[in-house]
Design goal:
Elements (H helix, E strand, L loop, with lengths): L3 E6 L6 H4 L5 H9 L14 H17 L4 E3 L10 H11 L8 E3 L3 H4 L8 H11 L4 E5 L2 E5 L2 H5 L7 H18 L4 E5 L20 H14 L3 E4 L6 E5 L2 E5 L13 E8 L2 E8 L15
Parallel strand pairs: 1-2, 2-3, 5-6, 6-7, 7-9
Antiparallel strand pairs: 1-10, 4-5, 8-9, 10-11
The structure holds fe (ii) ion.
Length: 291
């Protein structure tokens, strides 16, 4: 096979920076206690930082011509904001039309309250962004996109989880029948941070529904899962399968600045590298202390 590459982005999350501006010390401390390092930001409105960072990532894609760009969820901060959505789509419209762009459902895109999907919020998502789970192929590699919000919280959308699990198994089986060299999965939530047997937490798919998916990944030999949601880079592994959480194009909550990942797929494997954005936002640790 001929080696090729793609751009993986996550958490453009237009509107998040403004929503976190002017936070009190108590609010910042509360987020820190939940594992999110929030940099102090002077109050502002709109989404200037997100626009600058996303435009840079799109310009880099136009320069380097990957086979596709995928945005692993939380395109917007407020699922009901038509302004945020319009700005994401306006910037995405700057991508060279010969490069496909794929969207992955994040909790801020498909959750009615940014967490739990409802029939109306799922329908609204599909109207704007397209299917919330689907597959595509490129260069002998099979790619599968999943909706981890429905996996994490299926309670208000009866039948959706079951349909998605049937789709997943059928796609994995079909990928192997096609003599696929590799299977790569895209999600918003990582399945786990350290190992599949860890307990539940805000950043991962609930264990009860995580383990059946991991069993399928092991059975069909998935090479890697690329996710977002954590707003920082993180790397784990299960039986040779990489579990990669990629830092945000938007607001960082860990030790990495805003950025995106270039993944190269080649014979028998893949390699990947995170690229910080010059117009991205720094992590909390880089902010000068204003106490
Ligand atoms: Fe998220």
């Amino acid at each position: 096979m001929t080696a090729f590459n793609f751009f993986q982005l996550a958490d453009t999350q237009f509107g998040m920076s403004a929503s976190l501006s002017n936070r009190s010390d108590a609010q910042i401390a509360d987020m820190a206690s939940r594992g999110m390092k929030v940099r102090r930001v002077a109050p502002f409105e709109g989404f200037g930082p997100e626009t600058a960072a996303f435009e840079e990532a799109i310009a880099e894609a136009n320069r380097l011509k990957p086979q596709f760009v995928i945005v692993c969820g939380d395109m917007v901060n407020d699922p009901d904001s038509s302004d945020e959505r319009a700005e994401v789509l306006r910037v995405a419209g700057q991508l060279d039309p010969s490069i496909p762009i794929h969207w992955v459902a994040g909790n801020h895109d498909i959750g009615a309250d940014t967490i739990v999907p409802t029939p109306a919020s799922v329908e609204a998502y599909r109207d704007v962004w397209g299917d919330d789970y689907f597959s595509f192929q490129h260069g002998g590699t099979s790619f599968i996109v999943l909706d981890t919000s429905v996996m994490d919280h299926p309670e208000q959308v009866p039948g959706e989880l079951e349909s998605q699990m049937r789709f997943l198994e059928a796609e994995l089986r079909a990928a192997r029948k096609r003599d696929t060299s590799q299977i790569i999965v895209f999600t918003h939530y990582p399945f786990f941070l350290d190992n599949p047997d860890e307990g539940d937490g805000y950043f991962t798919v609930a264990k009860e529904r995580r383990l059946p998916v991991i069993e399928l990944f092991r059975k069909y030999g998935v090479s890697a899962v690329f996710a977002g949601h954590w707003h920082r880079n993180h790397y784990a592994e299960d039986n040779g399968m990489l579990m990669v959480s990629t830092g945000p194009v938007g607001f960082p909550l860990g030790d990495d600045a805003s950025g995106y990942r270039i993944v190269e797929v080649h014979d028998g494997g893949l390699s990947h590298e995170y690229h910080e954005l010059l117009n991205g936002q720094p992590p909390a640790g880089n902010e000068e202390d204003k106490e």
